Amino acid sequence: MDPDKSSFTILGAGRSGIAAAALLKKKGFKVFLSEEYPEEKLKYFRKDILTDEKIEFETDGHSEKIFENDVFIVSPGISPESEVIKKAAALGKKIYSEIEIAFRFCKCPVIAITGTNGKTTTAVLTGEVFKNAGYDTKVCGNVGVAFSEIVNELSKDSIAVLEVSSFQLEYTEKFRPAVSVILNITPDHLDWHKNFNNYLNAKGRIRENQKQSDLSVINFDDKTLMDDLKNTDAVKAFFSVKEDLRDSEINKGCIGINGEVIYFDKNKNVNEVIMKTSEINIRGNHNLYNSLAAVISARAFDIKKEIIRDTLISFKGVEHRIEFVRELNGAKYYNDSKATNIDSMLVALETFDKNVILILGGREKGNDYSAADKLITEKVKLVIAIGETGKKITDHFSGKVKCESAQTMEDAVRISFENAAAGDNVLLSPACKSFDMFDSYEHRGAEFKKFVNKL
Questions:
Q1: Helix (H, G, I), strand (E, B) or coil at 66
Q2: Beta strand 323-328 with 331-335: parallel, antiparallel or unpaired?
């Protein structure tokens, strides 16, 4: 990118937008930032950064000035169907995501992780393995810190572990991670992508620029992913908890079977037991999958199995994902606020044997709660419905399981406490977005923990 030939409009004054604006301005580019909402409605608005960097900006609506620049960098929250994006495309403007721009300035290898569920846990876990191996490691992207915020801190010897969403991948062009990881794929964000095929194609963009020197890590047990192995020249590695891949034509991978985590690379005559699956600290079959993916990424950089094992033994998971909060009167309370879709909630339920009090609900578009009927009937003793979709939830599950409604999170926690007995598990796993009652899933989880800790 030539500062004399490119100018940038940043749409969205969230963390990634402001970080991209600051990065480009420091690199000598002409930058204009535009935000649809007024300042007082923005959760993250660093006006000080914009002022210090002398970045021109506007809030409370997009003026025609946004079309004066060559390239648009769009917030993940802006739909491709929005009028402003349609007009920019019609005018022939380049449209990129923030990760595409930051990647252009990145000096070090990138490990990029995507999937419908498990991205954050896998990214943080992978980052911990690399940190424990002595690498200068930055975990960023869709997990708290924008790629653009830290890219200038990276040297050629660093490692960037990047959690990436389908929104971010949709607007990439040259993005090329050294290691790409696709954990799983189920229908999600279809209001944004319009259909499942578009969503699948967006996820697949994580590997479309990879070369033969790169690595593509894929969940063997996910049939949709296995039917969509096109579009990359990278070496492929697979992980599975169902099949012994060593007995197949697959040359590289990691399996979690017969109580062991085993990494193999037939080309290097490697076949090594990393650890027992029971030693992995984070619970649940889904976290076994996440761990296998992290093992492959680490072994791609020749990190010793002892370091991998020690990290998996000590790693406690991430906040808001089946996070243990406290035990009270023999009942345990778990915060799974990050479960913003049905599949993620089902993954959480599968980690418990029975006696679950489930706090469920929020804002959703077209959730099919019948997909949860079997597990909820088997494991849940009480559903506490919250948020905009509360009535839909109680209408669906009444007759299958005891249901109650709560108007606030404090009310939901109170009802759970009144109904919890020793041995029960109170689980906030909403299967919905948080924006009806909270700023974000983090805010929702924090409120749950606050009221649980007040009991």
A1: helix
A2: antiparallel
Q: Which amino acid is at 297?
A: S
* β-bridge mates for residue 159, sequence order: 137
Three-state secondary-structure class, residue 88: helix
Largest CA distance in the chain: 68
Top CATH class, 323-454: alpha beta
C-alpha separations of 424 from 97, 353, 418 in Å? 44, 10, 12
> Do 50 and 18 meet the contact criterion of CB atoms below 8 Å apart?
yes
pLDDT band, residue 353 (cuts 50/70/90): confident
Phi then psi dihedrals of residue 383, to 5 deg: -105, 125
Q: What six digits make up the tokens of 333?
A: 């309370």
Tell me how far apart the alpha carbons of residues 219 and 180 are, in angstroms, rounded to a whole number.
Answer: 12
Can you say whether the dihedral through the CA atoms of 236, 188, 447, 392 is positive or negative?
negative
Strands of the sheet containing 331-335, edge to edge, are: 323-328, 331-335, 425-428, 356-360, 380-385, 403-405
Q: Which CATH architecture has domain 100-314?
A: 3-Layer(aba) Sandwich (3.40)
Domain boundaries of the chain, sorted by first residue: 7-96, 100-314, 323-454
The CATH fold assigned to 7-96 is Rossmann fold (3.40.50)
Q: Give Cβ neighbours of residue 155 (< 8 Å, ≥ 6 apart).
A: 107, 108, 136
| Percent of the chain residues past pLDDT 70, beyond the cut | 97
d(CA 217, CA 292): 10
Q: Which two tokens stand for residue 372?
A: 């949860």
201 within 8 A of 114, measured Cβ to Cβ: no
Give the CA angle between residues 283, 284, 289 to the nearest 5°: 110
pLDDT of 6: 86
DSSP element (H, E) containing 308: helix 305-314
**How does DSSP classify residue 326?**
E
* Rounded Cα distance, 380 and 373, in Å: 10
How many residues does this entry show for the chain? 455
pTM metric for this prediction: 0.83
Using the predicted structure, report yes or no on whether residue 75 has a pLDDT greater than 70: yes
Q: At what angle do helices 441-454 and 409-419 cross, to 10 degrees?
A: 50
Q: Has residue 345 got a pLDDT over 80?
A: yes
* Rounded alpha-carbon distances, angstroms, from residue 119 to 27, 44, 279, 339, 356: 30, 22, 21, 12, 25
Rounded to an integer, what is the distance from CA 386 to the centroid of its chain? 24
First to last CA, the chain: 56
